[in-house]
Amino acid sequence: MSARVTRSSRSSRAFAIIAGCAVVILIAAPWWAGRADMRLFSEIFLYLSLACLWNLLAGYAGLVSVGQQAFVGFGGYVLFGLAIFWGVSPLFALPIIAILGVLVAVPVAALIFRLRGAYFAIGTWVVAEIFRLLASQISALGGGSGTSLPVSVVKSIASSRATRESVVYWTALALAILVIITTVFVLRSRKGLALTAIRDNELAAGSLGVEIWQTKFIVYVLTAGLTSAIGALIFLQKIRITPDAAFSVNDWTAFVIFMVVIGGIGTLEGPIIGTLIFFVLRETLADLGTIYLMILGLVAIAIMLFAPKGVWGYVKSRYGIELFPITHRVKFEEE
Amino acid sequence: MDWVNSILQGILLGGLYALFAAGLSLIFGVMRLVNIAHGDLIVLAAFLGLTITSTFGLHPLAAIIIVVPAMAVIGYLLQALILNRTLGDNILPPLLVTFGLSVLLQNGLLEIYTADPQKLNAGAISTANVALGPLYVGVQPLLMFGVSIGVIASLQWIFYRTALGRAFRATSDNAEIAQLMGLNKAHVFALAMALSMAVVAVAGIFLAMRTSFTPASGPGRLIFGFEAVIIGGLGNLWGTLAGGVILGVAQAIGAQINPGWQILAGHFAFLVVLAIRPRGLFPRVEH
Amino acid sequence: MLEARNLTAFYEDFQALFGLDMTVLENQVIAVIGANGAGKTTSMRAITGLLPSSPGMVRWKGQDIGHLRADQIAALGIAMVPEGRQLFASLNVEENLIIGGRSGRSGVWNLSRVYELFPVLGERRHQAAASLSGGQQQMAAIGRALMSNPELILFDEISLGLAPIIIKQIYQVLPDIIGGGISAIVVEQDISKALAVADRVYCLSEGRIALEGETGSITREEIFHAYFGV
Hints:
- The structure holds three protein chains of three kinds.
- By secondary structure, chain A is mainly α.
- Chain A has one domain (7-333): Orthogonal Bundle (ABC transporter involved in vitamin B12 uptake, BtuC), CATH 1.10.3470.
- Chain A is built from 16 helices and four strands.
- Chain A is globular.
- The mean pLDDT of chain A is 86.
- Chain B is mostly helical.
- Chain B has one domain.
- In chain B, strand 1 and strand 2 form a beta hairpin.
- Chain C has helices spanning 40-48, 70-75, 93-100, 111-117, 119-123, 134-146, 164-178, 191-197, 220-228, and strands at 2-11, 14-24, 29-34, 58-60, 63-64, 78-81, 152-155, 183-187, 200-205, 208-214.
- Chain C is 34% helix and 25% strand.
- Chain C is an alpha/beta fold.
- The chains are: A mainly alpha, B mainly alpha, C alpha/beta.
């Protein structure tokens, strides 16, 4: 008998096949889904991406940010700025925006990494507020009341409306897949193992000191870049931007935290399940307005108190299923 | 003269920011808890004040007598029933639970009081002035600043001169050993939160007397309080007062240059302190 | 007075104690000895309620205290001098003592009695606890436990990390304390020190009692066997 260390499991291989099929079906959506459905799907993809990234930050790197709206709004505003001032085509702007997001995140991280734990969280919020206030000072982008994307820029994506919507849809889907692959890649890397070590035992990992700081830094900056790109796409779809919408703590952080917490923080599957649950709740309860938001708050509190590992954490501990090949398993084989 | 006047206003406003901060600082000192819903609880106190003044026709300052114990009871129950269950080595549960509480409070207040801006009418006191040399200073800001200093001094006294303060410090040092001294950790933490919420009650009433507020005003107050704590230095109540004053003055200077820069200038002061003195200007020294 | 029956304890999933039986009579000094990791500190933590135990496992003067919290057990008159002293660093010496006496149990011990027993603490009453030497900290920790006028004191690793001369001093005052009608459990790695003060010895090994008996009735050989598990 011999032992072999592997990361895949029967459930993860089955999931890979199902996910592959699902992606093919989703790519084909413009041919089978209505316009409203496609808008909803894009929104789900974008939220899914935000949730995966926030989970990477908080669930793995222990960087609990309540200020990711800083980068969502930054991405949105840079997209509008590039388009309005220089006529840069939105899709071409996306990679530029991601890089700018990374560059902006470097000094931000250097400052707020001086704050620990929960104070770090509020620090990220202050940064987002600063971004919002700065954005509302840019009069060329409409100041506090915001601005719209010029029609010519919108048309530069594609002249027909249907094609344009399909392109935006595919980009959102591609971004979501990119984010998921990136997270899996980060977590499987040596740095990713260090991250899990930090999360599981800060003291034991403490001897790694500098390396931990670097790892957290890289994760923060990488997340900021991707979040900026997502933000750009969100506001490309909305066509209109205002400081309050771009830097909304509710829309881009509270909802995202809700998704991750309810799905299961610190697992890759959690944010995906959480996003789906969130959208089911939203589609059925959103008419309740503030009551709906109160329900979200209550559910998040209840989950944190009674099932802190969320829905997926419960399933995982109960049935030992894992959809992404992250955990090392020792496999015994008869020779 | 405009400059001197606006800086003086900033100093007085700093007292209110110190009140926002003191409760935050207190519970962090005792149980390392950062309450994201702190600002929303300030706003809750403001709305409680509004209901009491309009129902009983009381002056806002008289309403404090009811709002302070009410908020203290809310704080005790909040800690004993919910937040104590989240405390441990992991910082996520308390953060996320208080974040959920923040969403809950904001929308709950919105449901009850609508989004209309409200203000507490303090009557003659809000318009009265006293001459301070060549300057005229409002009686109300002066009174608020005096009360803030009084609150900080009382907290300092409680912390360092009373049995309750000893229990706070002992539990903060080592909760396990404090239990061997017969201190019930859950009760001590709940008392700390009750005290924090008593301060929040005063802060909420003052906020409501000074400016108009809405159910969405909470996060802004949390951020001002947080900035005052970090500028002043963790674990130092007088430092927190200094932090509040610095924040208030920075905002006043910003507003004097350009009205749109008021809040931004405060945030920049915070970032500058964070960059050059990450532990704050007056970090904790042993008493 | 204190009776532990089938006491078990866990650190999460790891079982550290496997059914300990231990009895402390009035005015009795018990020594608990054993190698590192034998379960000495764990058993002290279980008795004082710092580790959860189950109803029925620990009885105090006939009352079941197995399910009580640490602060409730402390109020019944069981005090502990914890391993490593663990004074409250942000409290001064006198405040440390006062907080020890906050349960309000009446008895002979008060600030002036403690200062009489350890004059150096009186001299340094307003100093921060952290500024004391290791030996003085141990005195303050003993004083803090006495302030609650306990009927039973648990000394966990009473001489660990202290200079030999300090250990000697501490053992010199021990009879003064215990002579006042207080029972004690002394956790000690130094076997001869333990045997010198104790009426009865429990030797722990791997979370179980390997040997127990009156001090006079067991031989050193037996203890060494139990201690090293050979």
